[in-house]
Design a protein that fits this description.
Elements (H helix, E strand, L loop, with lengths): L5 E3 L4 E2 H9 L5 H8 L9 H10 L1
Antiparallel strand pairs: 1-2
Helix pairs in contact: 1-2
Length: 56
């Protein structure tokens, strides 16, 4: 996956930012939300966030 791909358009959070949050200890979607803000507005990217976490 391209690290520059925007996963959360509402908060403009990239795949790389989600991967970095996971590397820093965020293991659940909720922890990624706290760390990055991704998925906290419309929720449309929650499945994509989980997919990234599952791939790591």
């Amino acid at each position: 996956m391209d690290r520059e791909e925007i996963i959360c358009h509402c908060m403009e959070v990239t795949a790389g930012a989600i991967m970095d949050a996971a590397a820093a200890g965020a293991k659940t979607v909720e922890e990624v939300q706290e760390a990055t803000g991704a998925g906290t507005v419309c929720g449309g990217c929650l499945d994509d966030i989980q997919m990234i976490l599952d791939s790591l």
